[in-house]
């Protein structure tokens, strides 16, 4: 205690203020803002599909204009609509077998 009698106490004061709104950003808020911007950017983006001229030509050629084929399709549609179409399960099985195993 005797050593303290000869010394003067030095008092250091520090002023602490609230952070100003302009320079302080909450890290959580910053992350949340990025997420909101990202969602907004995704909402503006639209899906796009580009079909080549060659693909368009192939699609146009797909329509079969053979009158015999068109008549057969028309008859099959009519049978299906009337509930008269019968599936030949043996033919279906044979075609599936040929497709998968390449045999007749």
Please characterize this protein's 3D structure.
The protein is built from 5 helices and no strands. The chain has 104 residues and is mainly alpha-helical.
Summarize the structure.
The protein has helices at 2-6, 27-44, 53-61, 67-82, 89-101. It is mainly alpha-helical and 104 residues long.
| Backbone CA Rg | 41 Å
Low-confidence runs: none
What is the number of strand segments? 0
Element pattern in H and E: HHHHH
**Helical residue percent?**
55-70%
Structural class category = mainly alpha
Separation, N- and C-terminal Cα atoms: 113 Å
Largest sheet: none
How would you describe this structure in keywords?
104 residues, mainly alpha
Any chance you could write out the topology, listing elements then pairs?
Blueprint: H1 2-6, H2 27-44, H3 53-61, H4 67-82, H5 89-101
């Amino acid at each position: 205690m005797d050593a303290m009698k000869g010394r003067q106490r030095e008092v250091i004061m520090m002023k602490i203020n609230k952070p100003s709104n302009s320079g302080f950003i909450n890290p959580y808020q910053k992350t949340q803002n990025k997420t909101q911007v990202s969602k907004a950017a995704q909402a503006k983006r639209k899906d796009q599909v580009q079909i080549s001229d060659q693909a368009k030509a192939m699609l146009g050629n797909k329509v079969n204009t053979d009158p015999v084929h068109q008549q057969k399709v028309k008859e099959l549609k009519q049978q299906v609509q009337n509930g008269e179409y019968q599936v030949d399960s043996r033919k279906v099985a044979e075609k599936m077998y040929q497709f998968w195993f390449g045999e007749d």
